[in-house]
Amino acid sequence: MTILCYHSVDPRWESPLAVEPAAFERQASWLRRSRRILPLAEALLRLDATGRLPRGEAVLTFDDGFTELHTYALPVLTRERLPATVFLVAQTLTPAGQAVDWVDTPGTEPLTTLTRDQVLEMQDAGVDFQSHSWAHRDLTQLSTAECVQDLRDSREMLSELLGRSVTLLAYPRGLHDRHVREAAAQAGYTHSFALPERAEEPGDHAIPRVGIYRGNGLLTVRMKVARPYLPLRTSERLNGGARRVKRLARRVTSRG
Ligand SMILES: [Zn+2]
Fold it and tell me: What SS3 class is residue 18?
């Protein structure tokens, strides 16, 4: 199973983070026909129950909660009946809001994020929302106390907005270290997702995902989905400590 990580679906933003709508439609259609796409929470349950990640299955996730997901991704996800999880930056949903100040390739027009109404509309349409921290800071640069506070604030605010418990976290830029993983657990998350550029030791708070970027053709997406993923055999390993797992380093063009 591969957990795919998209960011935006946007025709105008020429960035690795913004897949073109037509490409996304082709990818979604192919995934619908040739893979079983699971809701993220269900995939985690299967992982725990079997201790193994089934072949031929994939999960769709989107980081950052860009406005264009509502415009370009939602209609495709609805039409193809594909489950998906969007990881939100909680502060963008406060009355004061937060500008998108965390991308390396901002483009010519200001980037915007989903409104509360759009989030709730998408949730009603079946989209799952989880946490992408409070303010998209590099969590590895925070003290443990600051990190716990950031992640807890995000979890509590999003849980209140969504009317249900938020328990999953995608680290900003996929960056984490031991103190960040411990902070995530302390802040009440059950699982956290990374975006490794090279082999990382997987765990409940270091679940790898594969990024899909602008310009990735269907062949590239097929390769990324088919690539041997977490070579784990037992759920103990996910909960276990220091075990190196050899994986091919993945080349990605950008992270956000
Ligand atoms: Zn991000």
Answer: strand
- Show the tokens assigned to 78: 């609805």
Containing structural domain, residue 126: 2-239
Q: Is residue 173 part of a domain?
A: yes
Token couple for 121: 């509309």
The CATH number linked to 176 is 3.20.20.370
Ligand 1 centroid distance, CA of 69 (Å): 14
18 CA distance to ligand 1 middle (Å): 12
**247 in any annotated domain:** no
Is 254 among the domain residues? no
**pLDDT tens per residue across span 56-67:** 889 999 999 999
User: Taking the alpha carbons of 169, 170, 173, 179 in that order, is the dihedral positive or negative?
Assistant: positive
- 179 CA from centroid of ligand 1 (Å): 19
Distance 65 CA to ligand 1 centre (A): 9
Dist. CA 136 → ligand 1 center (Å): 6
The predicted model scores a pTM of 0.88
In this predicted model, what pLDDT tens digit does every residue of 84-123 receive, in sequence order?
Answer: 999 999 999 999 999 999 999 998 899 999 999 999 999 9
Stated as kind and residue range, the H or E segment containing 64 is strand 57-64
| Number of compact structural domains in the chain | 1
Residue 82 CA to ligand 1 center (angstroms) comes to 22
- In the block, tokens 């591969």 appear at 2
